[in-house]
Amino acid sequence: MHGTKRPDKESCRPVNSAAQPDVAAPVAVVTGATGGIGRWIARGLVRAGATVVLVGRDTARGAAVLDWLQQDAKPGQLHLMLADLSDLAATRALGQAIARRHPRLGVLVNNAGVFRARRAVTAEGHDLVLTVNHLAPFVLMQELEPALRAGAPARLVTVGSSTSDSARLDLANLELHHHWGMVRAYGQSKLATMMTTFEWARRLQGSEVTANVVHPGTVATGLVRSPGVIGLAWRLMAPWVLTEEQGADTPVHVATDPALAAVTGAYFKQGKVVTPNRLALDAALCRQVWDETARLIATGPGAPPRRR
């Protein structure tokens, strides 16, 4: 996701805005849709009949994916919107732009993610990994919740990771100002977004909007670009892991299967519900993660980390 051209400030608009959506089709939003499993998730939703809003951050990659998807799509079924999800202001503007154009949504797939070898801080002062993997999906869901409620039955699908299964949570230090490590940062960010997704599920009860987390499997994507031994090990392992197309199977299944219409607050692997990290089963702790996430978003840069 990172290392590509940064979109300009006017990019939170449909790039192919001339085509009008099919008002009878459900509308699905997929972040990180211009590469990795995201483009295959988009294809699965297109084939399921949804009007798909692809969210990316690079014009050229977005155009290439649009061209690739045209073979499966009808006129007006695809829309590309550009935003840098490491920028929370841009993410909020993206959500507002989507909601204006599509006031009724059927699916939101928060798929975009990043894994980094070294800590980086965004222009807004937040840890980059936490921002893209956790804070930005939270902000986007805040903006699109009314549209999902209006489009119910609807689904929030959060693409998680099995690294969350054994991750630890430092609620007073979600930004990992202290003791940052790439596996720790990634695992904690994925655990945090799982826990807020489960809290969304509780808050959405009775609305016919479900909220679930999926582990796509170990997929040979470009997400891991670590130098050194870890990066080498990942490249050597690639031939024995899932393809990007296979990695999209579980997210598409959870987003579209009619049998899952009433399933919410669950964690899926290989299309089946499994037990998540025990911390994610603690409803009170999930609410605390929700509150801390909202605080981080509200306070912006410079907020000092709290210690226990």
- The percent range for strand residues is 5-15%
Q: Which residue ranges are poorly predicted, with pLDDT under 50 across at least 5 consecutive positions?
A: 1-11, 13-23, 301-308
CATH architectural category: 3-Layer(aba) Sandwich
| Amino- and carboxy-terminal Cα gap | 34 Å
Total number of helical segments? 9
Estimate percent helicity. 25-40%
Structural class comes to alpha/beta
What's the CATH topology label?
Rossmann fold
Q: Report the strand count.
A: 8
- State the assembly state of the protein chains: single chain
- For the record, what CATH class applies? Alpha Beta
N-to-C SSE string, H for helix and E for strand: EHEHEHEHEHEHHHEEH
Number of domains: 1
Q: Rg from C-alpha positions? A: 18 Å
Biggest sheet strand order reads 3-2-1-4-5-6-7-8
